[in-house]
Amino acid sequence: MKKIIKWVFILIFLLTGFVSASDVEYVEEMGLLECLEFALENHADLELARFAISEAEFALEKLEMDDPRKVAAKDLLAKKQDLAKAKETLVETGMNLALQVETKYYQVLKTIATINNKKDSREWAEKQLAIAEVKYTNGLISKKEHTAIAKRVMETEREYADARFNLETVRMEMNLALGRDLAQFFQLKDQEFPYQSVEINLTEATQYAVKHGKNVQKARENLTEAQENLKFKIASESAQIEIIKFKQKLKAAEIKLKQIEAETIIELRNAYIGFRSAEDMIRDAENTYVQASEELEVLSVKYEAGMVSLIELMEGQRELSAAEVKLIQTIYDYNLAKAAFNQSSGKGYSLYQQIVQKGSDD
After folding, report:
1. What residues contact 216, with CB distance under 8 A and at least 6 apart?
2. Which residue, 37, 77, 85, 95, is most buried by CB atoms nearer than 10 A?
């Protein structure tokens, strides 16, 4: 049961940072928050979205400087709507980018863990081959067993090489999401395992989502605008038909807000189900890993006593390796589910606003 705490393997892969070729130069260390800040400041898609806002602002200012008698109200309204749409696009782009960066961040961690898994398998196979060479020379194992372990060594070498190549690709994808040069690799700054079991108060999360959710906030802003427009029409003693029209717009904004609040609650509950399911999968994967580890220990003892063949021992090691890979995958899935829940609850949007505000202050 001593290997039940084999969460240690995560600490190993995090402490090693990016497992890479010796010729790779790391330009800096970055954690998840630094990655998000960098992407939201430098990514080309956001630069284009900011340019669109500047163009919309310029077009609106130009129209407002014209002679009011020559500017149609509908043209002025269209320019204001263009500006609002450009700002909304910036937020949407930023939110999508933030989720993409977080996904890639966890994918890098998963790939590093997978590399260490493949490296351990390769080293185990190489050690067994060295022992098998001696045993085969002395007639203690069959040619079939000797050939099998030799093939296993080649198999693990190929898997290890493939995992390293995959890491290089994931690094490039991460840099692309950040808006960095593809060759500018960096080490992980955070030295903590990304799986942390958290307790969620669904009632509090729902209240937070209804208050801070991006779509809810937008609907609430539209409602406030409709209220102000109606007040203005009444105060300016507009025609009754105009007042009725703006009352209808206010009613539509109220209905829309209630609809979005309901959709937000349902989305959050579905995200909560996915989050809890992902946590259960980790427990199952951990149990499978522990069982495979104990079975390999038993097989190792039996192999030394001549009770099982080398092929059976290799199969036990292969099952342990597969269980570890499964555990790594479930941790990755868990973190994605947690990120999705934060997005649904509005916390992802709040973090985005904090980062943007921090960048503005700087």
Report:
1. 209, 210, 257, 260, 261, 264, 346
2. 37
